[in-house]
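Aim 2 progress update. The chain analyzed this quarter is reproduced below.
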Amino acid sequence: MALAAVALVGCGPISATSAIHDASVAIDAARGAKAPQFAVFEFVSAELYLRKAREEEGYSDFQAAVNFARKAEAMAAHAKTRATARTRKGMAPAPAPGGGLGVEPPVDELEPPQDGMPTGSSL
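Predicted structure tokens:
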């Protein structure tokens, strides 16, 4: 009985490491299919899930690490599929975040007020 308990304790880190590796390989495959350009949301989601999986593994929460790694792998596979489909159809890459679609410029790029009142940076 004690031997079985010891064996189960060792499975957590091994399964987490394996799942993280599989997710990393899937992300590399998605990157090779140009997912960062053609499936931005899915690719970034995969990278963020992988980052969270590594974080949870660092906290020894191996089940959470496995769960996040599996989500990362699934999103990477989806990103690869979407990117491959978009490149086959000859579609343009996805626009950059913001893409000039109603995104306000940073405050420091705005013109100074015309009434002579000081701005927040000149107080």
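Helices lie at 2-32, 35-38, 40-58, 62-88. The chain has a mean pLDDT of 81. These observations will guide the mutagenesis experiments scheduled for the next reporting period.
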